[in-house]
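Work Package 3 (structural annotation) set out to generate three-dimensional models for the target panel prioritized at the project kickoff. During this period the team completed the workflow that converts sequence records into discrete structure tokens, so that structures can be stored uniformly alongside our sequence database. As a representative example, we reproduce one entry of 97 residues exactly as it appears in the project archive.
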Amino acid sequence: MIIMSDSTHHIVPYRTYGLILLLLLVLTAVSVAVTQIELTKWSTAVALLLATTKTIFVLAVFMHLKFDQRIFRVMAVLIFLLLAVVIVITFLDYAFR
């Protein structure tokens, strides 16, 4: 069992936070720009891909998942896989009606 006082803390430089913030702002601008383009059936897929990319950056850097124990990363990946399965099942239900 790991006690919190035994764990080490990773200090992320402010520059990294600033770069990730800029990247998130650029990805947000891209997602807004994509809504102006008519992509028909691909609009939702592109929006979900951009949102997933932004979520991964937030989880990895701002929530320190990148520097945490491996079990937390595995659990986060499993949650994303479960979410993907639910989304695919929903799309399949919508597609075959």
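The radius of gyration is 17 Å.
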